[in-house]
Amino acid sequence: MLPRHLNGKSIDYLQWKDNHLRLDIGAQNFAPIEISPTLNQSADDKAIIKLCSQVHDFGYASYRWNAPSENIAADVQRLHTKLSLDNHDSGIVTESSGLSLLQDMTGTSQGKFIPYTARAMGWHTDGYYNAPACALRCFTLHAINQAASGGTLSLVDDRMLLIRLYDQNRDIVTLLTDAQAMTIPGNKDELGHNRPARTTAVFFNHADGTLGTHFTTRKSNIHWKTPDIQYAALCAAKLIEDSPDLHHKVRLEAGQGIIARNILHRREAFTDDKSQEPRQMLRGRYLQVPNPVQHKSLKVNTHAPCQ
Ligand SMILES: [Fe+2]
Questions:
Q1: 122 C-alpha to center of ligand 1: Å?
Q2: pLDDT tens by residue, 188-217
Q3: What are the structural domains, with CATH classification, of the chain?
Q4: Ligand 1 centre and the CA of 10: distance in Å?
Protein backbone atom coordinates (compact mmCIF):
# COMPACT_ATOMS: atom_id res chain seq x y z
CA MET A 1 0.00 0.00 0.00
CA LEU A 2 1.30 3.45 -0.87
CA PRO A 3 1.65 6.16 1.82
CA ARG A 4 -1.05 8.81 2.28
CA HIS A 5 0.49 11.39 -0.03
CA LEU A 6 0.53 8.80 -2.86
CA ASN A 7 -2.78 7.04 -2.16
CA GLY A 8 -4.91 8.90 -4.69
CA LYS A 9 -7.57 10.20 -2.31
CA SER A 10 -6.21 11.96 0.80
CA ILE A 11 -5.70 15.70 1.27
CA ASP A 12 -1.98 14.97 1.35
CA TYR A 13 -2.28 13.32 -2.06
CA LEU A 14 -4.23 16.24 -3.52
CA GLN A 15 -1.53 18.65 -2.34
CA TRP A 16 1.19 16.38 -3.73
CA LYS A 17 -0.71 16.13 -7.02
CA ASP A 18 -1.19 19.92 -7.31
CA ASN A 19 2.48 20.46 -6.69
CA HIS A 20 3.52 18.05 -9.43
CA LEU A 21 1.01 19.32 -11.94
CA ARG A 22 2.42 22.82 -11.39
CA LEU A 23 5.99 21.59 -11.72
CA ASP A 24 5.24 19.67 -14.90
CA ILE A 25 4.18 22.85 -16.70
CA GLY A 26 7.65 24.25 -16.04
CA ALA A 27 9.36 21.09 -17.27
CA GLN A 28 8.42 21.51 -20.89
CA ASN A 29 11.23 23.71 -22.09
CA PHE A 30 14.32 23.73 -19.98
CA ALA A 31 17.66 24.00 -21.71
CA PRO A 32 20.76 21.91 -20.92
CA ILE A 33 22.72 23.29 -17.97
CA GLU A 34 26.21 24.49 -18.92
CA ILE A 35 28.94 22.95 -16.78
CA SER A 36 32.68 22.44 -17.13
CA PRO A 37 34.01 18.87 -17.55
CA THR A 38 36.59 19.41 -14.81
CA LEU A 39 34.21 21.22 -12.44
CA ASN A 40 36.89 23.82 -11.70
CA GLN A 41 34.96 26.93 -12.71
CA SER A 42 33.23 29.26 -10.27
CA ALA A 43 29.82 28.72 -11.90
CA ASP A 44 29.96 24.94 -11.54
CA ASP A 45 28.68 24.81 -7.94
CA LYS A 46 25.54 26.68 -8.99
CA ALA A 47 25.17 24.35 -11.97
CA ILE A 48 25.35 21.33 -9.64
CA ILE A 49 22.62 22.75 -7.41
CA LYS A 50 20.46 23.50 -10.46
CA LEU A 51 20.95 19.97 -11.80
CA CYS A 52 19.86 18.42 -8.50
CA SER A 53 16.92 20.76 -8.16
CA GLN A 54 15.63 19.94 -11.67
CA VAL A 55 16.02 16.20 -11.13
CA HIS A 56 14.09 16.49 -7.88
CA ASP A 57 11.30 18.58 -9.38
CA PHE A 58 10.98 17.24 -12.94
CA GLY A 59 12.52 13.76 -12.77
CA TYR A 60 15.54 14.58 -14.92
CA ALA A 61 17.94 17.30 -15.95
CA SER A 62 20.30 17.64 -18.89
CA TYR A 63 23.70 19.27 -19.06
CA ARG A 64 26.21 20.31 -21.69
CA TRP A 65 29.94 20.53 -21.18
CA ASN A 66 31.29 23.97 -22.02
CA ALA A 67 34.77 22.74 -23.00
CA PRO A 68 36.36 19.62 -24.51
CA SER A 69 37.13 16.76 -22.15
CA GLU A 70 40.53 15.10 -22.06
CA ASN A 71 39.29 12.06 -20.14
CA ILE A 72 35.56 11.63 -20.63
CA ALA A 73 34.99 8.71 -18.24
CA ALA A 74 36.96 10.40 -15.45
CA ASP A 75 35.09 13.67 -15.95
CA VAL A 76 31.71 11.92 -15.93
CA GLN A 77 32.70 10.05 -12.79
CA ARG A 78 33.79 13.32 -11.15
CA LEU A 79 30.41 14.86 -11.90
CA HIS A 80 28.62 11.85 -10.43
CA THR A 81 30.75 12.00 -7.28
CA LYS A 82 29.91 15.69 -6.95
CA LEU A 83 26.23 14.69 -7.12
CA SER A 84 26.74 12.16 -4.28
CA LEU A 85 26.19 9.29 -6.72
CA ASP A 86 28.67 6.79 -5.36
CA ASN A 87 26.75 3.56 -4.75
CA HIS A 88 26.34 2.07 -8.20
CA ASP A 89 24.54 -0.95 -9.54
CA SER A 90 27.12 -3.62 -10.34
CA GLY A 91 25.88 -5.09 -13.60
CA ILE A 92 28.00 -7.73 -15.30
CA VAL A 93 29.14 -5.30 -17.99
CA THR A 94 29.81 -2.38 -15.67
CA GLU A 95 33.34 -1.05 -15.26
CA SER A 96 34.80 -0.60 -11.78
CA SER A 97 34.06 3.11 -12.24
CA GLY A 98 30.36 2.21 -12.18
CA LEU A 99 29.94 3.23 -15.81
CA SER A 100 28.89 1.04 -18.73
CA LEU A 101 29.71 1.86 -22.35
CA LEU A 102 26.55 1.43 -24.41
CA GLN A 103 27.09 0.92 -28.11
CA ASP A 104 25.90 -1.41 -30.84
CA MET A 105 27.67 -4.72 -30.15
CA THR A 106 25.41 -6.90 -32.25
CA GLY A 107 27.07 -10.26 -32.92
CA THR A 108 28.96 -10.36 -29.61
CA SER A 109 27.91 -11.92 -26.29
CA GLN A 110 27.05 -8.46 -24.94
CA GLY A 111 25.02 -7.77 -28.05
CA LYS A 112 22.43 -10.29 -26.85
CA PHE A 113 21.22 -7.55 -24.49
CA ILE A 114 19.11 -4.90 -26.13
CA PRO A 115 20.91 -1.86 -24.64
CA TYR A 116 23.99 -3.10 -26.53
CA THR A 117 22.24 -3.12 -29.88
CA ALA A 118 20.90 -0.40 -32.19
CA ARG A 119 17.33 -1.58 -31.66
CA ALA A 120 14.54 0.43 -30.10
CA MET A 121 13.94 -0.07 -26.38
CA GLY A 122 10.37 0.13 -25.10
CA TRP A 123 9.17 1.95 -22.00
CA HIS A 124 10.87 0.75 -18.84
CA THR A 125 12.55 1.78 -15.65
CA ASP A 126 16.10 0.58 -15.11
CA GLY A 127 16.74 -2.46 -12.93
CA TYR A 128 13.07 -3.45 -12.66
CA TYR A 129 14.42 -6.94 -11.84
CA ASN A 130 16.54 -5.69 -8.90
CA ALA A 131 15.87 -6.84 -5.34
CA PRO A 132 13.86 -4.25 -3.36
CA ALA A 133 16.87 -3.39 -1.18
CA CYS A 134 18.83 -2.60 -4.35
CA ALA A 135 16.14 -0.60 -6.12
CA LEU A 136 17.75 1.87 -8.50
CA ARG A 137 17.02 5.51 -7.81
CA CYS A 138 18.96 7.21 -10.59
CA PHE A 139 20.38 6.63 -14.04
CA THR A 140 22.70 8.81 -16.05
CA LEU A 141 23.74 8.93 -19.70
CA HIS A 142 26.60 10.88 -21.20
CA ALA A 143 27.07 11.05 -24.97
CA ILE A 144 30.56 10.38 -26.29
CA ASN A 145 29.09 10.27 -29.81
CA GLN A 146 25.56 10.37 -31.13
CA ALA A 147 24.35 8.13 -33.95
CA ALA A 148 24.06 9.33 -37.54
CA SER A 149 20.29 9.05 -37.15
CA GLY A 150 17.84 8.03 -34.43
CA GLY A 151 18.72 7.36 -30.82
CA THR A 152 16.36 9.92 -29.31
CA LEU A 153 15.34 9.27 -25.71
CA SER A 154 11.85 9.87 -24.38
CA LEU A 155 11.29 10.26 -20.65
CA VAL A 156 8.11 10.27 -18.56
CA ASP A 157 8.05 11.23 -14.90
CA ASP A 158 6.49 8.24 -13.11
CA ARG A 159 4.77 10.63 -10.67
CA MET A 160 2.83 12.10 -13.59
CA LEU A 161 1.89 8.61 -14.76
CA LEU A 162 0.59 7.77 -11.29
CA ILE A 163 -1.55 10.92 -11.28
CA ARG A 164 -3.03 10.14 -14.71
CA LEU A 165 -3.78 6.54 -13.71
CA TYR A 166 -5.59 7.69 -10.57
CA ASP A 167 -7.59 10.12 -12.70
CA GLN A 168 -8.48 7.30 -15.11
CA ASN A 169 -9.26 4.46 -12.71
CA ARG A 170 -8.01 4.05 -9.14
CA ASP A 171 -8.34 0.27 -9.38
CA ILE A 172 -5.48 0.16 -11.90
CA VAL A 173 -3.09 1.63 -9.35
CA THR A 174 -4.37 -0.66 -6.61
CA LEU A 175 -3.60 -3.69 -8.79
CA LEU A 176 -0.15 -2.40 -9.67
CA THR A 177 0.82 -1.86 -6.03
CA ASP A 178 0.42 -5.58 -5.32
CA ALA A 179 3.80 -6.65 -3.92
CA GLN A 180 3.69 -9.80 -6.09
CA ALA A 181 2.41 -8.05 -9.21
CA MET A 182 5.14 -9.22 -11.57
CA THR A 183 7.85 -11.88 -11.51
CA ILE A 184 10.93 -11.78 -13.72
CA PRO A 185 12.46 -15.26 -14.09
CA GLY A 186 16.05 -15.79 -13.00
CA ASN A 187 18.87 -15.38 -15.49
CA LYS A 188 22.09 -17.34 -15.69
CA ASP A 189 24.48 -17.16 -18.65
CA GLU A 190 28.08 -17.34 -19.82
CA LEU A 191 28.62 -13.64 -19.11
CA GLY A 192 28.27 -14.34 -15.40
CA HIS A 193 24.66 -13.31 -14.81
CA ASN A 194 23.27 -15.34 -11.95
CA ARG A 195 20.18 -13.51 -10.85
CA PRO A 196 17.39 -15.37 -9.10
CA ALA A 197 13.75 -14.83 -10.05
CA ARG A 198 12.47 -11.52 -8.67
CA THR A 199 8.93 -10.59 -7.71
CA THR A 200 7.96 -6.95 -7.30
CA ALA A 201 5.20 -4.39 -7.33
CA VAL A 202 5.01 -1.94 -10.23
CA PHE A 203 4.40 1.02 -7.89
CA PHE A 204 5.94 1.08 -4.42
CA ASN A 205 7.44 3.59 -2.06
CA HIS A 206 11.06 3.94 -1.09
CA ALA A 207 12.07 4.15 2.57
CA ASP A 208 11.99 7.95 2.37
CA GLY A 209 8.36 7.93 1.15
CA THR A 210 9.08 8.82 -2.47
CA LEU A 211 7.54 6.89 -5.35
CA GLY A 212 9.41 3.93 -6.83
CA THR A 213 8.42 2.28 -10.11
CA HIS A 214 9.42 -1.03 -11.64
CA PHE A 215 8.03 -1.13 -15.14
CA THR A 216 8.63 -2.85 -18.44
CA THR A 217 6.64 -3.37 -21.61
CA ARG A 218 8.46 -6.64 -22.33
CA LYS A 219 6.07 -9.36 -23.43
CA SER A 220 8.17 -12.46 -22.80
CA ASN A 221 9.97 -13.71 -19.70
CA ILE A 222 7.59 -11.96 -17.37
CA HIS A 223 4.84 -13.47 -15.25
CA TRP A 224 1.93 -11.40 -14.02
CA LYS A 225 0.29 -12.57 -10.81
CA THR A 226 -3.25 -12.40 -12.22
CA PRO A 227 -4.89 -11.52 -15.55
CA ASP A 228 -6.31 -8.39 -13.89
CA ILE A 229 -2.84 -7.19 -12.94
CA GLN A 230 -1.57 -7.93 -16.43
CA TYR A 231 -4.46 -5.92 -17.83
CA ALA A 232 -3.68 -3.06 -15.43
CA ALA A 233 -0.08 -3.05 -16.69
CA LEU A 234 -1.36 -2.92 -20.28
CA CYS A 235 -3.57 0.04 -19.33
CA ALA A 236 -0.53 1.82 -17.85
CA ALA A 237 1.50 1.16 -21.01
CA LYS A 238 -1.36 2.45 -23.19
CA LEU A 239 -1.73 5.56 -21.06
CA ILE A 240 1.97 6.31 -21.47
CA GLU A 241 1.69 5.91 -25.24
CA ASP A 242 -1.47 8.02 -25.36
CA SER A 243 0.05 10.88 -23.33
CA PRO A 244 2.60 12.55 -25.63
CA ASP A 245 2.33 15.70 -23.54
CA LEU A 246 4.21 13.80 -20.82
CA HIS A 247 7.01 12.70 -23.14
CA HIS A 248 10.22 14.67 -22.78
CA LYS A 249 12.39 14.02 -25.82
CA VAL A 250 16.15 14.32 -25.56
CA ARG A 251 18.68 13.65 -28.28
CA LEU A 252 22.07 13.90 -26.63
CA GLU A 253 24.91 15.23 -28.75
CA ALA A 254 28.57 14.64 -27.92
CA GLY A 255 29.40 16.33 -24.62
CA GLN A 256 25.81 16.32 -23.37
CA GLY A 257 24.27 14.14 -20.71
CA ILE A 258 21.25 13.56 -18.52
CA ILE A 259 20.86 12.87 -14.82
CA ALA A 260 17.51 11.26 -14.04
CA ARG A 261 15.54 9.73 -11.24
CA ASN A 262 14.70 6.18 -12.29
CA ILE A 263 11.75 7.42 -14.31
CA LEU A 264 10.15 5.77 -17.33
CA HIS A 265 12.11 6.03 -20.54
CA ARG A 266 12.50 4.49 -23.97
CA ARG A 267 15.08 4.68 -26.73
CA GLU A 268 14.44 5.10 -30.43
CA ALA A 269 16.34 2.73 -32.76
CA PHE A 270 19.45 4.27 -34.28
CA THR A 271 21.74 3.91 -37.29
CA ASP A 272 25.47 4.46 -37.21
CA ASP A 273 27.35 5.81 -40.21
CA LYS A 274 30.35 3.57 -40.85
CA SER A 275 32.43 6.58 -41.88
CA GLN A 276 31.93 8.18 -38.44
CA GLU A 277 32.40 7.20 -34.80
CA PRO A 278 29.54 4.94 -33.62
CA ARG A 279 26.95 6.01 -31.08
CA GLN A 280 28.54 5.64 -27.65
CA MET A 281 26.90 6.49 -24.34
CA LEU A 282 28.35 6.14 -20.87
CA ARG A 283 25.62 4.95 -18.53
CA GLY A 284 25.60 5.06 -14.74
CA ARG A 285 22.98 3.49 -12.46
CA TYR A 286 22.85 4.39 -8.79
CA LEU A 287 21.06 3.54 -5.58
CA GLN A 288 20.88 7.20 -4.57
CA VAL A 289 19.27 10.29 -5.99
CA PRO A 290 21.49 13.27 -6.83
CA ASN A 291 22.35 15.56 -3.98
CA PRO A 292 24.97 18.32 -4.05
CA VAL A 293 27.89 17.15 -1.92
CA GLN A 294 28.65 20.57 -0.48
CA HIS A 295 25.04 21.60 0.08
CA LYS A 296 23.55 19.07 2.46
CA SER A 297 20.79 21.52 3.34
CA LEU A 298 19.34 20.81 -0.09
CA LYS A 299 19.44 17.08 0.46
CA VAL A 300 16.48 15.55 -1.30
CA ASN A 301 16.90 11.91 -0.40
CA THR A 302 18.85 9.30 1.52
CA HIS A 303 20.93 6.34 0.50
CA ALA A 304 18.91 3.22 -0.15
CA PRO A 305 20.13 0.23 1.85
CA CYS A 306 21.80 -2.43 -0.27
CA GLN A 307 23.75 -5.37 1.09
FE1 LIG B 1 17.07 2.21 -19.41
A1: 9
A2: 877 777 788 999 999 999 999 999 999 999
A3: 4-145+157-270+286-298 (3.60.130.10)
A4: 32
